[in-house]
Amino acid sequence: MKSIREPVRQARGDATRQSILDAAEVVFAEQGYAAARLEDVALAVGIRRPSIVYHFPGKQELYDAVEADIFASMHAYVVAHTAGVTDPMARLLALLDAWLDFMVARPTAARIIQRLIADVGPRAGNPIEFSETALRDIEAIVAAGVEAGHFRPVPAMMILNGVAAGAIFYVCNARLLGEGRTYDPADPAELARFRALIHTLARAAVTSGAG
Amino acid sequence: MKSIREPVRQARGDATRQSILDAAEVVFAEQGYAAARLEDVALAVGIRRPSIVYHFPGKQELYDAVEADIFASMHAYVVAHTAGVTDPMARLLALLDAWLDFMVARPTAARIIQRLIADVGPRAGNPIEFSETALRDIEAIVAAGVEAGHFRPVPAMMILNGVAAGAIFYVCNARLLGEGRTYDPADPAELARFRALIHTLARAAVTSGAG
């Protein structure tokens, strides 16, 4: 199985830069952009703030690198998991499986994407500077299914908001629903059950004739 | 149609307190808890910071009042829109319609809930102090459908994460998907199309036999 941190991260030679990125992803995921401080990232890596600034001039640049890494890894993961799958429905389910598995294995990414969608900034100028690959991945698969006559003409954005959103909520909500409702998103039985639901929803979304 | 700000807000006599709450909801929605400043709320209301502190001792208390108001209004909206509906499927669709209409009419609430799910805090101690009514609303309806044998035994939390999540993404994502993908969630045709999708997904989630 393709790693959720490959191949973008492996190409980088600098171990410190990678440690900073890993720590920053946790800090941005837990605290959000506004509250995150370079000092917290430095503390987590065990270096001093100037060592971060040597690699990343400021918080915005560090955040951008984290977000770019998430979406590049996610796209690579999707490409690997949909390669050779030609049937439109099988491709759609493979894409949604890849996104779900990616979020479960990298919950910091799920939380950062959840924040992205709440935030207008810091990517207000071009909110999809890094996420466009993900949008194109789902658009291409939905368009192919519609063209082949296998899917009803449903906009890809409805599948994104209506079905793919579930993978992010599933990961982020695990400990937020109160006593007696906590679950482990990585538990194999739990994950299998949610994956089956996502498949059911995806099939219904693209094939159901009725509103 | 029941107002999305009734009846909680009407019961309060103090117009200034209400103006502070309304402005704070916008500030918390746009900036998040960490970045929000009481000064921004004061500026939006046209009062000075001490006038806010007279009503709300601090940022946490002001945030709590906003979150409490959102979930109380949302619950009242659901109660009004499911009253007299007895068939389990019709009740489930009425609940999801109520949530969707509530989010569309009050996008600041959608954005605050989206943030809640990204954040561990400020409700880390009891994350559902205010949202428990919403969780109970959906649990009661799903449980009734399962008991009546109309629904397969699907946990309410899967409907929450898999189907209801869509209403929040639909509202929050409207201007975040880049050029050519922007939509108006309140546009009647757009909303009708997304509502039909939510109905399709809800029916599939509770009645589909296969995974």
Automatic annotation (TrEMBL), chains A, B:
UniProt domain HTH tetR-type: residue ranges: 14-74
Residue spans binding DNA: 37-56
Gene name of this polypeptide: nicS
Record-linked PROSITE patterns: HTH_TETR_2 (PS50977)
Protein name: HTH-type transcriptional repressor NicS
GO molecular function, one term: transcription cis-regulatory region binding
SUPFAM superfamilies: Homeodomain-like, Tetracyclin repressor-like, C-terminal domain
Domain of life per record: Bacteria
Record keywords, A-Z: DNA-binding, Transcription, Transcription regulation
